[in-house]
Amino acid sequence: MEKYNHKYGAEQIQVLEGLEAVRKRPGMYIGSTSVRGLHHMVYEIVDNGVDEALAGYCTEINVVIEKGNIISVKDNGRGIPIEIHPKTHISTAETVYTVLHAGGKFGGDSGYKVSGGLHGVGASVVNALSAWTEVTIARDGGLFQMSFEKGKTVKKLEKIGESKTTGTKVRFLADDTIFESLDYEYEVLEKRLREIAFLTKGLKITIEDQREETPKKAEFCYEGGLNSFVEYLNKNKEKIHPKPIYIEKGGEIPVEIAIQYTTSYSENIYTFVNNINTIEGGTHLEGFKRALTKVFNDYARSHNILKEKDNNLQGEDIREGITAVVSVKVKEPQFEGQTKTKLGNSEVTGVVQSMVNEALSTFLEENPQVAKAILEKCVSASRAREAARKARELVRKKSNLETSTLPGKLADCSSKVADECEVYIVEGDSAGGSAKQGRDRKFQAILPLWGKMLNVEKARADKIYGNDKLNPVIVAIGAGIGSDFDITKIRYGKVIIMADADVDGAHIRTLLLTFFFRYMRPLIENGNVYLAQPPLYKLSKKGMEDVYCYTEEDLEKSYKELAEKGIARETLSLQRYKGLGEMNPEQLWETTMNPETRILIKVTMEDAIKADEIFTLLMGDEVEPRREFIQKNAKYVKNLDI
């Protein structure tokens, strides 16, 4: 990797302000004190090593989860500067770990050209929120060490030996008085470190979990960079062209892009700025989309794939089935949007657009077979979009002619205030009947579904409109689908899927969630989708109030609690609920619908990449990956209905 030829010493470390309030308001600095915030602590330290890699000085980062949830992060970069800082009059290394916003990432003459860290708060915030921190630095021929407790220096930087190498090793134990849990999830860290390795071509990252008897280990190094990333994302999909289209350009704003088309109908574009996942997109995504639309239309016109009488292909036609990763490096990124993950730098749009225009046009001219295959899919998508438009207009026209626009099976609620209303999508007419009788009519609507619905992973939008299983759901929610979906028009604040606790019920939940993910994604992102959790068991005895159990653990706990009251297990009657229809309206209300007693699981989308992968795996065309998944996970299945 090309080295960024700048000084990296005390004068490059700028001090902006002190370290007050981090322990008082940790959420302001790491997002939350949940497990999510805990993992963020690791990313902050790893990012410092990545910055060294981006500058051309680090080739390897090793992450270890030691016994007792101690984290160790070691890199072979230049090592944090050790000389006395001119402003703080303490060692520069101690300054980095004790002063907020002290880092080599600010201003024109900083120690880095670009940085993965957002605010330069990483090291000091991790230190402030840890019970203890130990930093070992190899630099200038020596080995140096300092240590801290809850952000306060307990051992100043001192030389402890000689070293022929350079780098920094940080060990820390997060403070259990700050975080809800110190239990790191290996899979979560592994996923993020793999992502960082994809985005930092040639950087080797290892992770080891030493907490169990048999340690878990993984190593990531991708010389292919984003090409490898796209190949990984598409591993369970059928590709239209075997190798990704790769675009890379240096300069003031380095850009790296990989594109590959598959036979799927979904669009998956992931964007990053300085290795930060910009989930809300921004100016780099805008430039990419504009160029993509222009290049493919220009090529289709010049090669007579589109005739004079044909309309131009729309952006959504060209993006059907695309998997792309867009990564830019910006010296001073400006973030906006609700979660501060939307790039706002206006100059990036033009840079990305002109680069993609030039590189993609050249690629299509040099690879006419690939160009033809992609454009055949785009034209097919255009026809399907037109068919979907006609089907949508037909549905609207039909609805306007009828006296009621709502589906006949929907038992609506009396309130019209969306925030206080909820709709239960219920499997089967029998359970639907019980739900209608047991509900609170003021705010609870019931929509019964019968039979298996369309698997939208294998169908375009034109097949969805008019589908007798999905159309009632679309009309009841009232906000459209796909690019027409408008979250402000939803008729219910909670959309609750209520299906039997068996294999068929799980399949119906998966089909509905696939539909929401592909065609009403903002509904999930906005936190409007829930899963009802009906009880699995009922314990009863004459003269005793029924006890409902929602899990196997619940059942054992209830047996134990009843035994303590003198009620023996053998005197109890146990009923295993196979379906919602087995419950009468009062039982269904009390166990599954009463806001005071029910259990609802909110469907969240922490990670769009993982969600896309699992929906493709479970519901897509490729059989072999699904078979492997079933074989790997079969041992975890309980209560399988045969």
Could you please describe the fold and organization of this structure?
The chain is an alpha+beta fold. It has three domains: about 10-220, Heat Shock Protein 90 (2-Layer Sandwich); about 225-385, Ribosomal Protein S5, domain 2 (2-Layer Sandwich); about 405-535 and about 600-615, Rossmann fold (3-Layer(aba) Sandwich). It is built from 19 helices and 23 strands. The strands form five sheets. An eight-stranded mixed sheet has the order 5-4-3-6-2-1-7-8. Strands 9-10-13-11-12 form a five-stranded mixed sheet, sandwiched between helices. Strands 17-16-18-19-23 form a five-stranded mixed sheet, sandwiched between helices. Strand 14 and strand 15 form a beta hairpin. Helix 2 (about 35-55) packs parallel to helix 5 (about 185-200) and helix 7 (about 285-300) runs parallel beside helix 9. The protein is flat, with a radius of gyration of 28 Å. The protein starts with about 25 loop residues before the first helix and ends in a 9-residue tail after the last helix.
What is the count of β-strands?
23
Calculate Rg over CA atoms. Answer: 28 Å
Mean pLDDT: 86
End-to-end distance, in Å?
57 Å
* Highest CATH level, the class of the largest domain: Alpha Beta
CATH architecture of the largest domain: 2-Layer Sandwich
Q: How many structural units, i.e. domains? A: 3
